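Holo prediction — sodium ion.
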Amino acid sequence: MALSAELGRSGDPAEAEPTPVRVALLGCGTVGSEVARLLTEEAAEFTARAGAPVELAGIAVRRPDKHPELPADLLTSDVEGLIASDVDVVVELVGGIEPARSWLLTALRSGKSVVTANKALLADCSRELSEAADASGADLYYEAAVAGAIPLVRPLRESLAGDRITRVMGIVNGTTNYILSAMDSTGAGYVDTLEEASNLGYAEADPTADVDGYDAASKAAILASLAFHTRIAASDVYREGIGSVSAADVAAAKMIGRTVKLLAICERVVGPDGSESVSVRVHPVMIPRSHQLAGVGGAFNAVYVEADGAGELMFFGQGAGGAPTASAVLGDLVDVARNRAGGGRGPRESAHAGLGVRPMGETPTRYHISLQVADRPGVLAQVSQVFAKHDVSIAAVRQRDKHSTASLVVVTHAAPDAALRATVDDIGELDVVHEVVSVMRVEGEDS
Ligand SMILES: NC(=O)c1ccc[n+]([C@@H]2O[C@H](COP(=O)([O-])OP(=O)(O)OC[C@H]3O[C@@H](n4cnc5c(N)ncnc54)[C@H](O)[C@@H]3O)[C@@H](O)[C@H]2O)c1
Ligand SMILES: N[C@@H](CCO)C(=O)O
Ligand code: NA
């Protein structure tokens, strides 16, 4: 920017023109088509914001003949050829690990900056991508990879770089939030709701990535890496999806004034000897209906960040869909173009802390357990003994009689997750327990 301004003042019109920033767009689906449209329709605006013309140099898709709406001279199926051409920035909106990984490594190694929405790739390969970017001095930006339009990567990488983050917790998958919200409010069926989420462009190409929690786990890995200055891969994240969340779980949550959400929880854990590690997990959770995350419905995302100095921050907005995700991609693209025009560089990977990952079994959690038990004296004592055996303390018990059986609901205090699991297993073995109706972790204080 400074250089362009200088040239502009020199009075030489030939020198005054800033060099265009040429962009290769890989993929033109839900997100890519919106990026292509805005880059074409609002080219002058992006040029003004970036300080240099932002030119769409080519669009790589699998089948160019399927895109009559796009200028034919920009379309190609030759991805490698487009990356090797005289482009400065590669915007990757294809998804998946390969061939996206190889394309982006090639681009970064040859000094071309990358903007991507590909959380699966970042969660698996951030080290090699960052090293390739550092070796050539290129930029690697990925705001769209976590929570769509919501600025979250930038605040963690830049705004909070001077603080010590202790916790990041929230709803980071729109598809599963859409499904769980519908199950809670209308009792809608799982399959129909998933189809609606896919039609609205929220779900991944393979929706099992959403439903089984892989998408949220990738995002949790990215958030934890940024928050704790530590490389966390998707395989470090404890993961459970919503496939096992039943109507009985949703009803059981309602009975105790809670609702079910799929949460990503990233925490800094300090051991008794003062040593630090991190716990990163994604699983369904019952939260109080009064909790701020309980009101986050549909495909919306919301993430809490807690830091020593800043205290509690909350980020809320549209975490999926073509236009919201394109907003984050284009924000990154303007930043990269500004860096190119001004000769600067965006933030590098920060992984100096190198903290260990605490196994899920050792992570303190709280459980809700709903049982059908025999309605006779001494049953509660037998159940309580199992909790005592595993050193799990009970926070609340509620019992309701129903003919010859009774329903028993127990909410525990925090205990190591392995002890809670062992408690549930042993309870299921008791003769007096007819059915384990619902077991789920809880977060947030009871109201
Ligand atoms: N849809 C969303 O709400 C959303 C939100 C955040 C991030 N993302 C991420 O953005 C990326 C794109 O998602 P999408 O929903 O737009 O996907 P999509 O399936 O709608 O589009 C993918 C595009 O990639 C192209 N493509 C696939 N394989 C290709 C190949 N081998 N060569 C050339 N082109 C190829 C397809 O033709 C299509 O144009 C993914 O990484 C996804 O995780 C999506
Ligand atoms: N499939 C993802 C897209 C946004 O990353 C979701 O449902 O949240
Ligand atoms: Na984002």
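READOUT: The first strand starts at residue 21 and ends at 26.
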